[in-house]
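Annotated sample (chain length 95).
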Amino acid sequence: MSFQAYLDNIEKKIGKTPNEFITEAKKKKLTEFKDIIAWLKKDYGLGEGHARAIVYVIQHGAEFELRHTTGTHRDASGTLKLDGKLQKSKKGKRK
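Output written by the structure step:
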């Protein structure tokens, strides 16, 4: 599974985009890896892998080193879409 697909699955499961997690972490003043992991596991029930994916974008943003250029783990680019896969309608609900 690609990094982007991992983030999209988290959004589908939890209903929050990566940018929304970033905003919430900033409001809570969470910057340390272990503190962010604990928060994501406790408040959202994320497993270790999904929590680590969110920690990465909180700490490093959308850019990452593209390591897989073929196969199931391939990403199209080294830039993640943090605004989410699901589009919000004019009323603020997700389609």
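Annotation: The CA atoms of residues 4 and 52 lie 13 Å apart.
Annotation: The chain is about 50% helix and 0% strand.
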